[in-house]
Amino acid sequence: MLNPETRARLARIGWSDAVVLPPDAPADHLPARVIIQHRNGYVVHDGEKEFTVQPAPRFLKRNLDPVERPAVGDFVLLKPGKPAQIETVLPRHATLSRAAAGERYQRQLIATNVDSVLVLMGLDGDFNPRRLERYLALIQASGATCVVVLTKADQHDDLETLMADVADVLPPDIIVHPLNAKDPQSLAVLHPYLAAGLTAVVVGSSGVGKSTLTNTLLGEQRQATKAVRQNDSRGRHTTTFRALIALPQGGCLIDTPGMRELKLTGEEDLEVGQFADIDSLAMRCRFGDCAHQSEPGCAVRVALESGELDTERWASYQKLRSELQMQAANLETQLKRKNEANKALGKRPHEKFGRH
Ligand SMILES: Nc1nc2c(ncn2[C@@H]2O[C@H](COP(=O)(O)OP(=O)(O)OP(=O)(O)O)[C@@H](O)[C@H]2O)c(=O)[nH]1
Ligand SMILES: [Mg+2]
Ligand SMILES: [Zn+2]
Q: What is the pLDDT of residue 171?
């Protein structure tokens, strides 16, 4: 149990009723939150000050699944010492992850214990509904709320017409805020996601304005920002590590480096959210196993031909679905391997003492 004083202190870094302290936690293990992860250590905040700590040796095992290591956003318990050691990662109530770029399948954490994910997309050359669909799939699986933030709205004279066009290409029923990340008033619409006890993470390509938005909310230029390339609106990967920042609005914000690639992890469910409309269309096909190719009575083809279903969105859905199938198989293989390794460990005593 935390005393009221400690609780009030921890509330400044996002501690809320959602965080569960194990009843058997040693009394001298101090609660804190991971705010930065470096190559050789972590920076945590206890609500009053930040300091560097080391992870317990078991977190450094080479074959450990990266999702089991402490990550930015985690609430942890520290074993006292010089330096203090992260002994326990408290249960996470939301986990935003993706699969790592490259050949080898591996899940990678982006942020934990976030209530909302602000997906930033620039109303310039960065705008891309297909990329947004990927973000939505990952966020859907995270347990956090997705909020789409369209930055650089100030660079358009006829925002209303533009937003009408934007609405046409985005999935139905999503929260979208066009705004100017440099203008504090414009950011007032985001305050509900940033009230005391709440944590949000900003994600998006390099140059969309994640750090600009963070600085404007903070009221100071803490995070470095850099102008994008004129010809293609691309950023310069200015932010190089994730950082959790307590805001004057009472909540916390995690600024992240621009993401180059967004691979699904295999845990996503495309049908529950953004593609639910396509799923219910497919249920109206005459054949239960309709491949939506040339079968008679195919509701999907009818919707594509009438324009009710956007062809690019359909293509994107199919692509995501096959990627999801592949990644789900990869994930299963990985989990099976892990289970077998655990079993082998557990069996060792029998093998040693039981058999001759
Ligand atoms: N006019 C205008 N400029 C913006 C807005 N948001 C960001 N910018 C500009 O875009 C450039 C890139 O912004 P950053 O905040 O560095 O982008 P970032 O997303 O943090 O980029 P990385 O750290 O590289 O991932 C800067 O020159 C900002 O001033 C906006 O809403 N309106
Ligand atoms: Mg940045
Ligand atoms: Zn069909």
A: 81
| Candidate of 149, 183, 212 to mutate for ligand 1, largest count of ligand atoms within 8 Å of Cβ | 212
> Structural domain tally of the chain?
3
Q: What is the CATH number of the domain that holds 24?
A: 2.40.50.140
* Closest C-alpha residue for ligand 1 atom 13: 209
The pTM assigned to this predicted structure is 0.93
**Cβ proximity of 34 and 44 under 8 Å:** yes
Residue 66: give the domain boundaries.
4-89
Question: What pLDDT is attached to residue 348?
Answer: 53
Cβ(149)–Cβ(210) below 8 Å: no
**Does residue 270 sit within a domain?**
no
Ligand 1 atom with the shortest distance to the CA of 239:
23
**Is the CB–ligand 1 distance for residue 205 below 6 Å?**
no
Q: Indicate whether 241 and 155 sit together in one domain.
A: yes
Nearest CA to ligand 1 atom 12: 207
- Domain-terminating residue out of 255, 284, 301: 255
Report which bound ligand comes closest to the CA of 298.
3
Closest residue CA from atom 3 of ligand 1 = 152
Q: How close is the Cα of 135 to the center of ligand 1, in Å?
A: 19
Cβ of 93 below 6 Å from ligand 1: no
pLDDT score recorded for residue 28: 93
CA 187, chain centre distance (Å):
21
pLDDT in the model for residue 260: 87
Distances (CA, A) of 235 to 152, 200, 292, 302, 349: 13, 22, 40, 41, 55
Walk along the chain (356 residues) in steps of 10 and give the mean pLDDT of each run. Answer: 88 90 91 93 95 95 90 97 95 95 91 97 92 93 95 93 85 90 98 96 97 98 93 91 96 95 94 87 95 94 94 93 95 89 66 40
Domain presence at residue 268: no
- Sequence-distant (6+) residues with CB within 8 A of 229 are 207, 235, 236
